[in-house]
Amino acid sequence: MALLNEKDRREMFRLRRTIVRAEQALSEIDRSILPKGLCESDVSILERLARKGARPVNGLARQVGLTSGSMTSAVQRLRRRGLVETRRDLEDKRVVWVSVTAEAETIVKRFSRERGELLEQVFHKWSERERTVLVNLLRRVRKDAGETRGAAV
Fold first, then answer.
1. What are phi and psi of 79, to 5 degrees?
2. Which of 3, 41, 75, 117 has the fewest CB atoms within 10 Å, counting from its CB?
């Protein structure tokens, strides 16, 4: 792997900061419309379950980027609020499945609608081509970062 010159290295760091700042700005939009009493990870869990259906807790943790301990706490919190239900796997009692309730589905639909309206305001001046290019570039970053992380281990 070739070493970057100083100018290119600064450009890589500038690129990284720009991506992080864009994500922070979009996350701030999400935080501004979070349903009362829910945090970003709670909404991520509910969105994933509403979209994909019941999931084992350990697999869901990986999918939304939480540790198993954080996921356990989140599921317990959401269950107390009546937003998820849990059940043990019939064949492997160590596995706990989690699914959303009807109330959670309603919350996710409202949040998604509000988020969509705000994202329209953010991206309404962007052409379809610009949005497609950005999506493809960010997918490439994700893929290349994953490959780099795998190589570094």
1. -70, -40
2. 3
